[in-house]
Structure formats: C-alpha cells, structure tokens
Automatic annotation (TrEMBL):
Organism annotation: Phyllosticta capitalensis
KW Hydrolase (keyword) present: yes
InterPro entries noted in UniProt: Endo/exonu/phosph_ase_sf, IPPc, Jacalin-like_lectin_dom, Jacalin-like_lectin_dom_sf, Sph/SMPD2-like
Protein's UniProt name: Endonuclease/Exonuclease/phosphatase
Keywords on record: Endonuclease, Hydrolase, Nuclease, Signal
Domain Jacalin-type lectin span(s) in chain numbering: 311-445
GO terms assigned for molecular function: endonuclease activity
Amino acid sequence: MAPLRCSPLALLAVAASAAGAAADGTFNVVSFNVAGLPEILQNNGESGDKTTNTALIGQKFAEQGFDLIHVQEDFNYHATLYEYDNHAYRTATSGGAAIGSGLNSLSNYDWRDFTRIKWDTCSDASGSDCLTPKGFTYMRWRLAEGVYVDAYNLHADAGTEDDDESARNANLAQVSAYIESTSPDAAVLVFGDTNCRYTRTADNIDIFSNANNLTDVWMHLKLNDVRPTVEDVCANPAQSETCEVVDKIFYRPSPLLSLTPTNFSYIGKLFLSDPTNSSSTLSDHNPLYADFAWAASSTLRSSDFLGGPHGTAFSDVGALANLSSSPSPAGATLSFSGAERLDAVGIALADGTTSFSHGGSGGTAVSLVMGSGEYVNNVTLCQDKYNDHTRIFYLEATTNGGNSASTGTIGSDCLVSVAPEGWGLVGFWGRDGDEVDMLAAIWAPAS
C-alpha cells in the first residue's frame, strides 16, 4: 500500500502500512535522438518528411510501451511526437530550435523535481551548437513506494575540433559535478546523445566511471567491460551490437537499490517507415534500448519524499551502509526543532557512535528518546510554501510503543509513511539549508 497523501483533518484517523510495498521489479529505457531540427536547417538525409517520420516515432513509442524514453533534438516536431504517443507522464517542451534544449522524457512512471540545466560552455567550431540552449535534464524517477532512480538526459556538444572537444569535456564535467551534488548515494541513470566515442580519448567519456562510479551498459554487456581501441562505427540501423554509437546508457546502483542490466540492444530496425527497407530510417541516430532488474535492499530502505527541490542535497545512506554492522533503529534518540516550519532534524543511534543532523539552528528543540526495543516506525510530514519555496512545515514521529513527538505547523499537503513491519527509522535523506526543504526517512530492520 502506498503512503497516504492527505488533508490535515484526515491525519486524525489515518492508518497506513508499507509492508506491501514492492521490493523488486524490472524496467526498460530507450535513448533516441529524434532529429527534430527544422527540415530547412537539417534534413539528416533521412527518407520521408520530418512530420511524417516524427508521427511514426510517436506511434512506435506508444506501441512498444517503453518505461522511460529520453529523446534529444525534440525541437520543432514535438507536438506531432506527443500527438501520436500515449505515455502517461511526459515533460513539457522547452521550445523549438533556438529556444529550447530539445530534451524531453516520456514515461510509464511519475517523477519529481524535474529540472533543465543549460550548458555553461558551447562551441560552434564544427556546427551550430550554440544556436540553441542545449544541456541536460534531471528527474528523480519513482518506480515504487520509496524506490527512486535519479535519471539524467543529455545532449553534448558535437564536432571534433579543439574547441568542440573542450566544450564537450566541459559539458560532461558539468553533468558529473551535478550528479555528485544532487544524487549522493542515489541510484543513477545517465543516457542520451554524448557525441563521444571511446576511441577518441579527448572526449573524456571516462569521467562518468571515474568520478561517478557509473557503468556503460553497452560496454558491460556487449564488450565484457573491455574498452574498444579500434573505431567501429555503427551503420544506421546498426548491423551488430559491438559497433559503437555516440549515444550511451550509463547506470549506477545504490545502497538502497540494486540495478542490474539484463539486456542491451540497438533497436533501429523497429524505427523504419518500411520494415522491409533498411534505408527507411526515421532519424540519423540509432535508438538504444536496455532492460534492468531492480531490487530494494534487505538492510536499508527509503520512504517517499516530501518537500521541494531547494537547498543542498544530503544523505545518511552512505554512512549507514558503511557501518561495520547493520544499523539498528532500536533505542535511538530523535531530535528536531521547529516553530512555524521544520528547522532541523537529527537522529543518534544507540551504538553510541552514529548520529546525523540536518537543517538550520532555529526553532524550539524537541526530542524523542526510545527504549532498548523501541523505534520510530511512523513518520508524518507536511509541506507548504514559504517565500515561494516548498519546505517541510511539520514532522511527527511515532514509535512502535505508541510514543510520539512533533514540531512545526500542519500544512495543506501531508504524507504519512509507515516502515515495513519490524523496521524503524535510522536516518534521512533530502535537501536542507537554514530549514529542511525536502525529507524522506531511511528505515532498517530492528533485529
């Protein structure tokens, strides 16, 4: 059963259970540069007109029902793409060429905190990359209750002139730094048009593995993690799965969530206007497809998030995962402070060495000291607006023994999260500054 979102009055009589939350599953992803620049600027050498081709792409997206699609160059034919697609969750366009980034996502699952980020650096040395505000997008993609993957879509600078390489290096470094600051301890997917090849060392595509611990699904499944040293450029559609394209899919598991890629394919043959004619491609890029299996951890799990995308990201997950023994929620001391809003939150585990605190220094302090077999297994949060920022206004924690403490003001939008049976609170992750902007509970088994 999903955690309950409710009005303040409903809080008086609500009961919820997370015991039935999904613990494992599968999903698939697709990355596709859909060649949506105006035909007068770039016809891509494809058969058929771009409106017709885009309509066919949208139809095939709908027919195949892919779970998460990242598209690039979705510029002037965006309305046609969405007219023929039927995914439940889709990003709004940022505009046509010269206005928008061309980056959009279509999904069977909802997300939170979708953000568009423009490149700090671009180059027109080999083309017109600075013509439109290319960049990358970020979303926290929700697969199930408390199960999130931070998904990034990107379109890096093209070309191989020195200025192009310099700009592309800066692009990848910008994404890498954003992952470090925004996705600490989170499972991560990065996929899109990198304009990189492993045989071009100046591209520095290794930054994702070296700095962010990401793995290329294609190289992992098709090349046994051996980096290619001889250029083998794919035809369109690709005739083998060991040739290379500039589009990539990277992944990273987390202490909360295992991610295992089970299949990788170039699926250009699905995107032909005439299935019997391999030259009837709908774009000049091969679309990429990957299957994943996921499983929630047996030692650490998350509640759903509440709050807004402000402040600085924090996470207790990594520290909890690195403890010499599994963290126990029993006998912990929960501390928080607040007045009109939640100013700070903290927890000290009974091991005597592990404690965490987040937020600012304001508000009135409240504490909840638990006995040796007692732990928090129910957390209620409420959010509201302050200075146009969504923040956590209210926190109430209740133990398995029925004791509780609270602070802040019950707002208009509340979330009740209940730990899995026999699990309790050991930490948090979210975003903070002088107050708490976003929050989720981290649960661990009590024994």
